[in-house]
């Protein structure tokens, strides 16, 4: 059963206009907008706790999208809503809470980002162990080479930090949460598919309650009355949520989970480049070399999957 094709067909009214866009163009947009999330978090720490920013980010998204999705939500069965709500909790709340809380407890941002960027490897291992999916040697080689590129690119930004030992597991758990959500979404039957905007609204809606709990634990849920907080929320609403998560699910409908995750290997070096442009943080040749190595690894993943797809079943 070709789940990707079935998902695309099930949501044809929403997906059809975007089919004209080449997949590599969508993937390029995904890398840029996904990287913007780390930049938004970096910018926001001077104005408000990260948990408060992600809480209000979800609140704003649910308010903006609701008029456009309410009719489709009413026509969707409770079973489908509950399934997609579960995926949303894992993909958004689980991932972001794991990363942001790890950083809040003292895990250095560079190390937390590296753990989060183990997503392609985590997804591949889960697919092989749990779903019994077989990946070719070239795909595994590409994933390992891509990871090596990430380590090279982020080498200068890595530090051990003073967090309690268990806190270092939070970004890893966040990564695994997104990996499980991705594979769950990819394996779901076409009959349980939702349109892109209703799905994104539902994920933000259910995640709002999880973020409210975390942000409330740290303090007040009231927004901070300064322009920096407003800018942080609007930045993450437009780029990180509507852009990053929107393009993530869009690309997932067009290609394999392994390919989509592997493309995110380019996120760390691009994040460092954006940090240099916006915050004057230093660059190094290792970053450029790491991006080149990651690009090579992604190319191997794409070619390996294409070769595997051509083999007779």
From TrEMBL:
Q: Which residues form the EamA domain?
A: 29-153, 168-302
Keyword line: Membrane, Transmembrane, Transmembrane helix
Assign the protein's first listed, main location to one coarse class.
Answer: membrane
SUPFAM superfamilies from the UniProt entry = Multidrug resistance efflux transporter EmrE
Determine if Nucleotide-binding is one of this entry's keywords: no
| Keyword Membrane listed | yes
Membrane-spanning regions, if any?
21-41, 47-68, 80-97, 103-127, 139-160, 166-184, 196-217, 229-248, 260-279, 285-302
Q: Where in the cell is it found?
A: Membrane
Q: What is this protein called?
A: DMT family transporter
């Amino acid at each position: 059963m070709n789940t990707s094709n079935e998902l695309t067909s099930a949501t044809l009214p929403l997906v059809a206009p975007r089919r004209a866009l080449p997949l590599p163009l969508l993937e390029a947009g995904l890398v840029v907008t996904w990287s913007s999330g780390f930049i938004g978090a970096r910018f926001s720490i001077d104005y408000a706790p990260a948990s408060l920013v992600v809480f209000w980010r979800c609140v704003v998204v649910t308010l903006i999208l609701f008029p456009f999705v309410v009719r489709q939500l009413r026509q969707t069965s409770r079973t489908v809503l509950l399934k997609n709500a579960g995926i949303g909790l894992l993909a958004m709340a689980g991932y972001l809470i794991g990363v942001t809380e790890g950083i809040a407890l003292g895990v250095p941002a560079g190390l937390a980002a590296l753990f989060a960027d183990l997503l392609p490897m985590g997804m591949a291992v889960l697919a092989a162990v749990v779903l019994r999916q077989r990946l070719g040697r070239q795909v595994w080689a590409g994933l390992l080479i891509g990871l090596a590129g990430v380590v090279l690119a982020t080498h200068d930004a890595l530090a051990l930090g003073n967090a309690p030992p268990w806190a270092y597991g939070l970004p890893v758990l966040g990564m695994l949460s997104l990996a499980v959500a991705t594979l769950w979404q990819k394996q779901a039957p076409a009959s349980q598919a939702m349109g892109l905007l209703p799905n994104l609204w539902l994920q933000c809606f259910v995640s709002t309650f999880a973020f409210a709990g975390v942000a409330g634990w740290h303090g007040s849920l009231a927004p901070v009355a300064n322009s920096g907080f407003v800018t942080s929320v609007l930045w993450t609403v437009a780029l990180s949520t509507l852009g990053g998560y929107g393009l993530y699910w869009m690309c997932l409908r067009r290609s394999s989970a392994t390919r989509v995750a592997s493309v995110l290997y380019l996120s760390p070096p691009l994040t460092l480049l954006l940090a240099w442009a916006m915050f004057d943080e230093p660059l190094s040749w290792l970053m450029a070399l790491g991006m080149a190595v990651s690009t090579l690894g992604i190319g191997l993943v794409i070619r390996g999957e294409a070769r595997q797809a051509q083999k007779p079943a």
